[in-house]
Amino acid sequence: MLLEQQPAYVLHTRPYRETSLLLECLTRDHGRIGVVARGVRSQRGRLQRSQLEPFQALTLDLQLRGELATLRSAESVGAPLRLSGDAGVAGLYLNELVVRLTERQDPHPSLYTAYSQALSRLSIGESLGWQLRRFERDLLGSLGYALQLVDDADNGEPLHGDALYVYRPEHGPIRCSVNDPNAVRGGDLLSLHEDRMPDAQGLHALRGMMRELIRFHLGGVELRAWRVLRGALARR
Q: Which SUPFAM superfamilies does the record match to this protein (predicted)?
C-alpha cells in the first residue's frame, strides 16, 4: 500500500544493515510505523538523512508492506524545532513514551496533534513539567485510558479541591490520608482536567501520579528518560 504525503515525525532511529536506517515514525493517519530508509547512511544519502531527525515535521511517501514500510521520499515542513537542554530531554521523553505505549499501525490522529502541540510548546520555553503532564494525559486518553479527574471513583461524588486522593489505575481517584506518599489534591486533579497549570506542589504530585499510571500501562517497566528527567526537573 502506498502512503503519500503523510505528515509525520521521526521518533527513533537505529542502523539497519550496511547503509540504511530503521525509523520509528509517528504519522498522522496511520499511527506509529516502522520505516526502512535505504541508503541514507551512504555518502549519496547524507542529504536525505539530515532531514530524518527528531522534532522535524515531515511529509513522507511510504510503501507499506506488512510490518514495515519503505521510505520513498521525505520533505521537511518548515524549520526543525529548537529543543535544547532540558527541553530536548523532555522531547526525547515524549518520543520514548510514544514508542513504548503505542502499537505499530494503530491510528491515533488526536495523539499526533497532541504530540505536535507539545513539541511547539516546549520549543518556546513553556513550563516543562506542565507540558509533560498535559501530553501524558492526552496520550493515555488517545489510547483509550482516559483519566477520571472529576468524581471520586468509589462513591461518584465530585472531587473536593482541598481533599486528598490517590489515583488507582483502571479505577480512578479515591480519598486517602495525608500520610499516603502518592496523595494528590482534588484541586490539582481538576486543574489537569480543565487544562489549568497548578502550583509547584500540585505539579510535583501530578508527576508522581502520572509516573505510576504510565508504569502500570508499561507492565512495571521503567523508562530510560525518567532517569535523565530527574535532573532536569530538579532544576525547575
A: ArfGap/RecO-like zinc finger, Nucleic acid-binding proteins
Rounded to whole angstroms, what are the CA distances from 194 to 149, 187, 226, 234?
9, 10, 26, 26
Phi, psi of 217 (to 5 degrees): -75, -15
Digit-by-digit pLDDT tens for the chain (236 residues) are 899 999 999 999 999 988 899 999 999 999 999 999 998 887 676 667 788 989 999 999 999 998 899 999 999 998 888 898 889 999 999 999 999 999 999 999 999 999 999 999 999 988 999 999 999 999 999 999 999 999 999 999 999 999 999 999 999 999 999 999 999 999 999 999 999 999 999 999 999 999 999 999 999 988 888 877 766 555 54
Q: Give me the sheet containing 172-175, strands edge to edge.
A: 172-175, 164-168, 184-185
Q: Topology of domain 85-234, per CATH?
A: de novo design (two linked rop proteins) (1.20.1440)
pTM for the model: 0.92
Name the residue ranges covered by the structural domains of the chain. 2-76, 85-234
Q: What is the CATH number of domain 2-76?
A: 2.40.50.140
